[in-house]
Amino acid sequence: MNFKTLVxxxxxxxxxxxxxxxxxxxxxxxxxxxxxxxxxxxVKVAKYNNHFKLSDGLVSNEHQQPxxxxxxxxxxxRGNEQRTEIEVxxxxxxxxxxxxxxxxxxxxxxxxxxxxxxxxxGDGIIETxxxxxxxxxxxxxxxxxxxxxxxxxxxxxxxxxxxxxxYNELTVKLKE
Length: 176
Known about the structure:
The structure is a single chain. By secondary structure, the chain is an alpha+beta fold. It has 3 helices and 10 strands.
């Protein structure tokens, strides 16, 4: 390899090292996020909807990725929502959102959500202002353990350390 090729390779490596799919500031722990969210609810992920083709560039790795999910509202803790089921959108591959199937169908979560601005994803998949979005740059959801009636996640913490609290204890903290 000649010198020019080495310089070019080194430059490319430095360039790609700084590329990120999503670059956002950490918005905070669950209680911080909940304070600024339109709704806070205990939900069950009922089903996935609006699938699209996701690929890492290899045809053999293409699969149908859900873009949204129906969340069944078990208990609304904050905000105003009359529906018992809501549509929640995740990432289509180019936004700072998690893929919606990160939250597993049939599982329970405590979520802090905001309404969509309305995005047309093409192929007839449209987020409406009545839909909600799940963001990635903060603790926008925490796990709910139904048998133990507890929640686990970064509830008060900034660091990656999680804690478990009784669900009733967290609902009191949400009202403070």
